[in-house]
Amino acid sequence: MPSRTAATQAGTAAQGLLPTDVPISLIDADARACSDDDWKMPDELRLLKLYRGMVLGRRFDSQATALTKQGRLAVYPSARGQEASEIGAVLALRPHDWLFPTYRDSVAITARGVDPVEVLTLLRGSWHCGYDPYEHRVAPQCTPLATSALHAVGLAQAARMKGEDTVVLVMLGDGATSEGDTSEALNIAAVWNAPVVFFVQNNGYAISVPLAKQTAAPSLAHRGIGFGLPGLRVDGNDAAAVHACVSRAIERASAGGGPTLIESMTYRIEAHTNADDATRYRDQHEVEQWLARDPITRLRRYLLDRKLLDESKIDALDAEADTAAAQLRERMNADVPADPDELFKDVYAEPTTALRRQRAMIDAECRAGAA
Amino acid sequence: MTIVAETTSSATELTMAAALNRALRDALADDERVLVFGEDVGRLGGVFRVTDGLADQFGEARVFDTPLAESGIVGTAIGMAMNGLRPVVEMQFDAFAYPAFEQVTSHLAKMRNRTHGHVQLPIVIRIPYGGGIGGVEHHCDSSEVYYAHTPGLRVVTPADAADAYSLLRQSIESPDPVVFLEPKRRYWNKQQVVPSRGDDLGRALVRRGGTDVTLIAYGGPVATALDAAEAAEQEGRSVEVIDLRSLAPFDDETVCASVRRTGRAVVVHEASGFCGYGAEVAAQISEQCFHYLEAPVLRVTGLDIPYPPPQLENHHLPSVDRILDTIDRLQWDESRPAED
Ligand SMILES: Cc1ncc(C[n+]2csc(CCOP(=O)(O)OP(=O)(O)O)c2C)c(N)n1
Ligand SMILES: [Mg+2]
Question: ipTM value of the model?
Fold first, then answer.
C-alpha cells in the first residue's frame, strides 16, 4: 500500500496542474467582459493589435482559399473561425521566441512577419518551405502530425543549455494529440522542464473525425497532469483570453517554470481543406452555432462598446486588408518558373556523384525540351 | 581508392567499443556543441559501454539519459541541432530505432532540402546493429537499407576499431545527418588504433588486394570476407576485398575500378538479400562494368526471413564456406561470353 507521505507528495505535485471547469474567458460570446480574478484583460493597445491581426488574417485566409479556385494553390487548409487562437497566441511571442506551426497555421505565420508569398510556397508547390526559418524564428510548417512538438522541445532545451531566454510555442491540432509524438514531447518537456508552450487548437475535428472519437479524457488540457505539466483550457474564440493565457505560459517558461499545455476551444468553420466535403460528416446547424461565436465580431463589438474603435477605423483596417490581399493575389498570379537545378542543391551539403549525374541528365532533358 | 597507411607513434590496442568511446570523448573535448544522449548512456555507459565514463568526464549537461522514447530522442535532437548544437544520440539496438523512423525519414533526412539549405541537421544516430552475438529476437536486425534508401542521410558502418574511431569522428563533424551503424559482433575485437580523424568519409577501402575476384562487404561480414579471401588464396584464387564503410553515398568509383580489374564480383552482407544493399551494388556494377564482367555478380546474404533465434543464426549469417562456394560459381571454366 502506498504510504501516506507518498500520497501527500503526489497530491501536492498535482496541485495547479488541472484545468478549470469552465474554459478561461475574458470577453464572452456576447462581447461582454467576464470578471475573472485570475486573469487580466490585455491593455487597449494589445486588444487593437489583436483585432487588426485577426482582420488581416481572415482576409489573407479567404484570399488563399480563392487562390485554390484559380489553380494557384494546390490546396489550402483554412483557419477561418480560428483567428482568435492563431493571432492571440502568436502575438504573445517575443522576438527571440520561436513558433512551430502546422499546415493550418499560415495566418499565425504571416502575423509573425513572414512574407505571405513565402508562406504559401508550400501550398503553391514551387518548393517545400518557402521561408528562412531563422529570419523570423518560425520553423517550417509541419505536416506529419505532432512530430514538430519534439523539435520544439529540443530547440527550447538547447536554448536553455546555451543560456538564452527563448520560449518555443508549438501549435497542434486536437487530432494530433493522439499521436505518440505528442505524448513523448509532453513527457520529455516536463522531465527537462523545457521552456515550451504546447498550444492545441481544438477545432472539433481531425478531418472528419470528431473529438469524441479521439480521446476519452475529460478534456485535452487534462492530459497535462499525467505528464506533470499544467493544462489550461481557454475559450479559443476569445482573442483576449487566448493572448492572456499564452502570455502567462511564456512568462512562466521564461522564468524557468517549465512547459504548459493549453487547449484552445475553437471551431473549424471551413472544410478540412478546399478539397474536403464537410457535409459528409457534420451538420450545418453546428457550423451556424459557431458562426454566432465569431471571434472577430466579438472583439469588434467589445471595442466599439468601449469607443476603442469606430466605423472609420474599422473601414480603414478592412481597406488595408483588401490591399494586402490584392497584392498577394497579384504576386501569386505571377508565374515564377521552378528551377530543376534546385532539386539537387540541398539534399546533402555537397552533391554526391550520383546526384551530379542525375543533375546532368535533367539539364540535358531540359535543354532538349527547350530546343 | 583510399590508402590506409597513416603512421604516427601513438598506436594503442583498443576494442571497437573502446575506439568508439575514445572518438566520442575526443569529439566532446574538441567541440562544446557536441552532446551525447540516449537510453542508459549516462551513468551506465550504455548497454555496450560505448559511452562509459563520458558523463563523469563531461557532466550530465552534455552526456545524459533521456526518457525511454526513441522518436523523442531523435525529434529533440533535431530541435537542438536547429539551435546550433551537434547531438550524437544512441539507439539501444537496431530494432528499437524503429519508433524513431518517422523523425528520421520525414525530418532528419529532408530538413536541409525542404528549407533550401537554411536548416542543416548535423546529427549522428549511433545504432548497434546486426547479429552474430546470440541475441534474441529484435536485437539483431540489419536495418541499413531502410536508411540508405532515404535521400539526405549518410549511412556509415565501420568494420574494425580503427575505422570506428576515424569514421565516427568524421561523422560527428559532417554537416549532414549520419546514421552510424555499429556491428555489434565486432565491438570486442581488438586492434592497434591510431586515433586519427582521417578525411575519407564516403570512401570505400580496399582491405586486401587481389586479381581474380572482388568481394564487396561492409560492417560485420568484412572480417568474414577477409577470412574467405585468405582461404581462397590457399586454393589458388586471388581475392580483392573492399570494405564499403559508407553505404550512402555509395563509392562506386572504388568498387567499379576493382571489378574492372578482376572481372568478377560477389557482394556479401548479413541483411536479407531481397531488395538488400547487394542488389544496388550488383546493379551499379552491371550498369558501369558490364563489358568487364566474366560472370554475373553474385550475392551472399542473409536469408529472406525474420532474423532467426540464436541457435539457428549460423544458417543465416554469411559464412566463409558459403562465400567460397559462391566464388566457385563465378563461371571460371566457361569461355566468354557467359550467358545462359
Ligand atoms: C502522421 C500523420 N498522419 C496522418 C496525416 C493526415 N492528416 C493531415 S491533417 C489530419 C487531421 C489532423 O487533425 P487535427 O490535428 O485536429 O488538426 P486540424 O487539421 O484540425 O487543424 C490528418 C489525419 C498526417 N498529416 N500525419
Ligand atoms: Mg482539429
Answer: 0.97
